[in-house]
Design a protein that fits this description.
heterodimer, A: 392 residues, mainly alpha, 16 helices, 2 strands, B: 461 residues, two-stranded antiparallel sheet, two-stranded antiparallel ribbon, 14 helices, 8 strands, 71% helix, 6% strand, globular, disordered C terminus, binds CIS-heme D hydroxychlorin gamma-spirolactone, binds protoporphyrin IX containing FE
Chain lengths: 392, 461
């Protein structure tokens, strides 16, 4: 039985939403990670302020992507939802704990005035930013390795504690840090903050390299633990994997060259392509080895409803998101005045200047050479990895 | 595992308790998500339109409280989305395709609410006043529309429709009949009105308490008047709606109705019990008003009312006493609140100014708590009254519950987390208000209109 067109379309919509969550939600988690790593109260102040300013107005909207993925999964593919929720009860509950800590941390953050309280809420926020992506990653890892049966008898510890699952968790954390650092570079640039630009460029590079390495290791491990998905990744989904690698390398090049205009999109492609690659590699399975798309999807009426709703969402929510991000990019969204400020009224301190001197460029020649070398190495790596797709 | 633990793990009790406590918690925050934007917009409107500094200050402060409550609301709502699957895989696996549809629609409204919340909460400083006001409108609309959608999901469990079952699997789904099931037109307006009552009376109560302590400036008077008016308008509508729903339940879910009203045997001239507990088939401590139940259901003492003897004992809701008393509490509090609202309305109509005597302010200060209790009681009627079904006449709760062990653990953790969230959502606004009060009261009157953008403020590039 081959899956219906509606089922494929709904799955595609779900993966779009998933990629959006990985990017936007992921960037918010990553912000928490950099907050954690920013060092002492004085030293990390500038970085923390930037993180805070760029996340606070948007995190709730970004969080809704997760909800949307969940409802699409439960409506479109109810048996898969039930199976995942039963078998992976523990990591899912733990990721929920992370979401809880984050929300409460946010709620407290701007009320806490004393340093001690601020540190506590900051710690909650940061811990959550590690916990949630890690455990969501183990969930994905468990599904991809075919460890989730269609009718689990209860929760399965082995499913999400396998090496692949744990690696996937780590990969998720690194990817969040990576995408976030890229976005933060651009935020810093918007504010013309040279030092922070340099600060996050450095971290973006580090996180990018780490993500790439973890990705490669996970990939290698998949060949052993999930031959089916591995075959998909090196077969049908190969173009997407290649795009992701190429985009990842291109980002490193752009960082090196300090060429900012395409940075955001390229980094986003690097992440989104992996998500879609995974989906494509798994096709036509929902739960590899136990549940196919055809067997696990809802009746056409429900799927059609999901598609219509998703279409409506694109029409209504798309422009709204556009507005939100635009207002934020134009820096119209700031913290409301504190109470003292409210009272001081007219004597508000002048805001920081909005001018953006171009980011300083170091001599170009060595950078260009290095990025060429890097690109060559990457192309060679892709070639070696994929042709011929051999099983280890 | 000990035998006791095994029993607990096998029964749906921990899962039910977890669901009920998370919902009972979330619903209060959801009320703020639905109705606080509305109240804030009214205050801001007055503030801009009349250049009223006190109203503007109220709007700003409410929006800060909103930021906190909605953050906690989003967290507790996410907990619920997970729990639907974590606790009820049987329900989701079988009926996810139907019950998920209203939840997906809700997704759109969540997006809208969260997006415009971001704009509204953080746009105070740099957006022009009316642009800012309008950015709040989608938020208020999305709040109400989102509530409609979730409650439609709940209505569907009470009045399932829009699907065809074959061999225990859903083979056909009609999305519109799922969303607009028989109970939707009754439950959804009742809930939105409840949200306006809960939020309105709770917020008004804060300022009523302030007025009682002698802070009688314009700021406090407006802080009472705006939310109280919203809630007072909702109250008579709510009581009317409740009356309509009760009759709908009597015909649509007669066994639930029997539990609400202690109707043991089907018959005519059924008495109405006010209060009372049921023990061994007899009602103690209750007042029976002869034939009133029949009259309420069908406007005639000869109306036949279906009792719970119409179904076998294992298909009857457990603890009818709880259901009955919850119903009485909801109705009783509804009428009390109606009286308080009518009193203020009458006074205002005669004198064109607020009634601010102690005799009025004390009940007004407590009105919010009463509304919360009424709402929780109403949900208890709905949910416990539906038992033992999770989907009325289609699926038993016991067959929907998760097989995963460890629900007892998560229940415990959830209870702790919710305690923390409660502290947060009550504590932070309290800290805020203490700070606000520490300012000299004169400042509150003299507050310059926060808009007139300070000259030093450069527009963003
Ligand atoms: C502020 C809260 C509030 C107030 C004052 C009232 N209600 Fe209510 N009621 C609710 C808040 C609520 C609720 C919590 O919102 C419920 C639960 C499910 C629902 O849709 O609304 C509800 C449910 C509910 C139900 C069960 C619906 C079902 O099972 O589907 C009935 C029969 C009534 N109500 C009847 C009344 C009557 C006769 C009232 C007269 C005063 C009344 N309610 C006042
Ligand atoms: C859209 C809203 C809601 C949905 C979809 C929903 C769904 C559910 C589900 C799936 C269960 C478990 C199965 C069962 O015991 O029947 C349940 C039980 C319960 N819910 Fe709701 N619910 C909603 C709103 C609420 C609210 C707001 C409350 C507030 C107090 C509430 C109180 C309860 C209680 C007390 C139970 C336990 C009933 C029992 O097992 O005896 N529900 N609900
Ligand atoms: C099983 C039942 C429910 C589920 C799964 C659920 C889920 C959620 C989720 C995921 C959110 C967060 C959205 C965000 O990130 O902004 C949320 C918020 C909200 N929910 Fe619920 N909910 C349930 C019951 C209810 C009920 C019964 C109502 C009201 C009648 C309600 C009204 C709201 C509103 C208005 C918000 C947005 C405001 C806020 O965040 O406080 N929900 N809910």
């Amino acid at each position: 039985m081959s899956p219906s067109g509606e089922a494929i379309a709904t799955a595609a919509v779900m993966f779009v939403a998933l990629a959006a969550y990985a990017l936007f939600g992921g960037a918010d988690f990553g912000g928490g990670i950099w907050d954690l790593l920013a060092g002492g109260a004085r030293r990390g102040a500038a970085a923390r302020e930037l993180i805070d300013e760029s996340i606070t107005p948007v995190w709730e909207a970004n969080h809704v992507w997760l909800i949307f993925v969940l409802v699409l999964l439960w409506t479109g593919f109810p048996p898969a939802f039930a199976a995942i929720m039963t078998a992976l009860f523990i990591p899912l509950s733990l990721s929920l704990l992370g979401i809880f800590l984050r929300g409460v941390g946010f709620a407290f953050r701007h009320t806490a005035e004393r340093l001690r309280m601020q540190q506590l809420t900051g710690a909650m926020f940061a811990a959550a930013s590690l916990i949630t992506p890690f455990f969501l990653g183990t969930v994905i890892g468990a599904v991809a390795t075919g460890q989730v049966p269609a009718r689990p008898a209860g929760n399965l510890l082995a499913a999400w504690t396998s090496l692949t699952a744990v690696l996937t968790g780590a990969l998720f954390v690194a990817a969040c840090a990576y995408i976030s650092a890229i976005f933060l570079v651009l935020e810093a640039r918007l504010r013309g903050h040279q030092e922070l630009i340099r600060y996050f460029l450095l971290r973006a590079t580090g996180a990018g390299v780490l993500t790439g390495a973890l990705g490669a290791v996970t990939f290698a491990e998949l060949s052993r633990s999930a031959p089916h998905v591995f075959a998909g990744l090196t077969g049908r989904a190969l173009p997407l994997v290649a795009v992701s690698i190429a985009a990842g390398v291109a980002v490193l090049g752009m960082i090196w060259l300090r060429w900012f205009p395409g940075l955001r999109v390229t980094a986003a492609i690097a992440v989104a392509a992996v998500v879609w690659g995974w989906g494509l590699a798994q096709y036509p399975d929902l739960l590899p080895g136990s549940l196919t798309l055809a067997a696990g999807s809802a009746p056409p009426g429900a799927l059609l409803a999901e598609l219509v709703i998703a279409g409506a969402a694109a029409l209504i929510v798309g422009p709204a998101f556009g507005l939100l991000y635009r207002l934020q990019q134009r820096r119209l969204l700031t913290h409301p005045e504190s109470d003292t400020e409210l009272r001081r009224g007219a004597q508000l301190a002048p805001a920081r200047t909005g001018g953006q001197p171009p980011a300083g460029r170091a001599p170009a020649a060595p950078r260009i050479t290095t990025s060429l070398v890097l690109a060559a190495v990457a192309i060679k790596a892709i070639k070696d990895l994929f042709s011929p797709p051999r099983r280890r | 595992m000990s035998l006791g633990a095994q029993l607990v793990a096998a029964s749906p009790l921990p899962a039910r308790s977890q669901m009920a406590s998370s919902l009972g918690f979330h619903i209060i925050l959801a009320c703020f998500g639905i109705a606080l934007p509305g109240a804030t917009l009214v205050a801001e409107w007055i503030g801009i339109r009349r250049g009223d500094a006190a109203a503007m200050l109220l709007a700003r402060r409410w929006s800060k409280v909103m930021a906190v409550l909605v953050a906690v609301g989003a967290v507790s709502g996410t907990v619920l989305s997970y729990e639907m699957g974590l606790l009820w895989p049987g329900l989701m696996g079988r009926f996810g395709a139907t019950i998920g549809i209203p939840f997906t629609v809700e997704g759109i409204f969540f997006f809208l609410e969260a997006i415009f919340l971001g704009v509204y909460l953080y746009g105070w400083r740099r957006m022009s006043p009316w642009a800012h006001w309008w950015s709040g409108v989608p938020m208020a609309v999305a709040g109400a529309a989102g509530a409609l959608s979730v409650v439609a999901a709940n209505s569907w469990m009470n009045a399932p429709a829009g699907f065809t079952l074959s061999h225990g699997r859903i083979s056909k789904v009609d999305p519109l009949s799922v969303y607009f099931n028989a109970a939707t037109p009754y439950q959804t307006p009742h809930m939105v009105l409840a949200a306006y009552m809960v939020t309105g009376y709770l917020v008004a109560g804060v300022y009523a308490a302030g007025l009682l302590r002698g802070r009688r400036d314009r700021y406090h008077r407006l802080g009472l008047a705006i939310p109280f008016s919203l809630a007072a308008i909702a109250t008579p509508l709510q009581v009317m709606m409740g009356d309509i729903i009760t009759r709908f339940i009597a015909s649509n879910q007669p066994v639930k109705f029997a539990a609400m009203e202690f109707v043991a045997r089907t018959g005519r001239e059924v008495p109405e019990y006010v209060g009372g507990i049921l023990l061994n088939g007899r009602v103690y401590f209750g007042t029976a008003i002869p034939a009133l139940d029949s009259i309420l259901v069908g406007f005639s003492p000869r109306t036949r009312v279906i009792g719970w003897d119409s179904v076998p004992p294992d298909r009857r809701p457990p603890v009818p006493t709880l259901i009955h008393l919850s119903f009485d509490v909801m109705v009783g509090l509804g009428f009390l609140l109606l009286a308080v609202a009518a009193w203020q309305g009458w006074w205002w109509w005669l004198h064109r100014r607020l009634l601010l005597t102690k005799w009025f302010l004390v009940p007004a200060a407590l009105g919010g708590v009463a509304a919360v209790i009424a709402m929780e009681a109403g949900w208890t009627v709905t949910e416990v009254g539906r038992q033992p079904w999770i989907v009325y006449h289609v699926m038993l709760t016991s067959s929907a519950v998760t097989r995963a062990s460890g629900v007892v653990v998560t229940l415990t953790v959830i209870l702790i987390l919710y305690a923390v969230m409660t502290v947060v959502s009550i504590g932070i606004p309290m800290i805020m208000s203490r700070r606000w009060r520490a300012e000299r009261p004169a400042d509150e009157e003299a507050e310059q209109v926060p808009y007139g953008p300070p000259p030093a403020m450069p527009r963003a590039p």
